[in-house]
Amino acid sequence: MSANNNPNGTDIRAILDKQRSAFLEAGPSSAAQRIELIDRAIGLLVDHEQEIIDAVAADFGHRSKDFTRVTEVLSPLMTLKQTKAQLAEWMKPESRHTDRGEAWVQYQPLGVIGIVSPWNFPVNLAFGGLAGALAAGNRVMIKPSEFTPQTSELMARMIRSVFAEEEVAVITGGPEVGQAFASQPFDHLLFTGATSIGRHVMRAAAENLVPVTLELGGKSPTIISRSADFKTAVTKVITGKMHNAGQICLAPDYVFVPEEKVAEFVATAKAVLAGFFPSLKDNPDYTSVINARHFARLQGYLAEAREAGVELIELNPAGEDFADQAHHKIAPTLLNNPGDQLKVMQDEIFGPLLPIKPYQTITEVVSYINAHPRPLGLYYFGSDADEEAYVLSRTTSGGVTLNDVIKHVGVESLPFGGVGPSGMGAYHGHDGFRAFSHARAVFRPAEGPDLMRPPYVEQVRQIVGSLIKR
């Protein structure tokens, strides 16, 4: 179904009903059947590699083709392959301890899974959710972002070429289509996107009591300890921030730097960036901001900070003028200690701007983090084991990477998700299989007296009495 068809709620519901009927009629699928579906998805990524790269570049205006090859083709490909290799093991019943018979958990497919995927990694996040949903034996409906129309249409064509509509379907369209999609009675809904939209999605899902997994992002803090290898830490922070021009839900959103090292951080950041990006404006490896709306939002953050007297440090090695450009590129900019009242310290930045927060003690850092909404990611650089343990035990975040940024998301054996305002639920790997399955409890009792049923004869009273003790 293409965007030109302008699907409404009735159209979307018809596909959902078709998928649910096919699911019920076919019954639970075997490991071999699920692997065959996953193999089709693998084939799509391999066969359409260049088309994916070109479509994403066209939607962004400019995006590093090598970065897209890694993140939109290789990454979901590896996820699908790992899922395929392990799903037979995941499907096995799990024995649970009981001394009153036999107990186990049987993982059943839920039915029809809805996936709402975002624009920043349009193929990666659609196919990543698809991997877990297919592994669990479900039918799948995907609503990709309207901000990446060419990629969304390509995915729709790709999916149609190898999947029947009752197996996997892609629904394209604008916000009204997204609202209608989120209002459907799916058996589970996975949403990746902004916290503000996540609230609407959860509200719509609640009307049908649809369980949700929400991956919402947030302001992920980075801590550089006095015990850190400083240059290495700065290098990893800056390179991580520059991935996709900061348009990553897990991008380091602001960085805590010892107050006596702020000047060194700035100097090192300039040198690091110049080493990777000697120029920016026409550099094929430097990605542009997705569209005019987000470009204006980021410029608004800078204008407000400038008006408030915040020191802005452009990381612009060639001193290029970005006023006249074909795309929406922004020079990476450090903001030295912006106040919390500024929007750059309230909103998830999602761009190449990096506030620096000078600190004196690690306790004040932890207090600051805990005084703000719980983030999707947290990053600590340092070699002080006690301090590291203090940060890990006293803060809460969706996930953590130590002595690097973002990379925990790439470990398929770890659950990926947020906490509080940064999301709920988790998926990836085995956790994704479980998220899209129903853990059905099964119990076969052993022979023996039924303590719950009258008549309560003396023998039963004695058994109950013998069990009630410390």
UniProtKB/TrEMBL annotation:
Q: Which PROSITE patterns match?
A: ALDEHYDE_DEHYDR_GLU (PS00687)
Which key words are in the record? Answer: NAD, Oxidoreductase
Q: Which GO terms describe its cellular component?
A: cytoplasm
Residue span(s) of domain Aldehyde dehydrogenase: 10-442
Annotated active site residues, numbered on this chain, are: E215, C249
Any one GO MF term held by the record is: aldehyde dehydrogenase (NAD+) activity
UniProt keyword annotation of Oxidoreductase present: yes
GO:BP terms for this protein? Answer: aldehyde metabolic process
Q: What protein family does this chain belong to? A: Belongs to the aldehyde dehydrogenase family.
Identification of the protein by name: Aldehyde dehydrogenase
The protein's organism comes out as Pseudomonas cavernae
Starting at the broadest rank, the lineage of the source organism is:
Bacteria, Pseudomonadati, Pseudomonadota, Gammaproteobacteria, Pseudomonadales
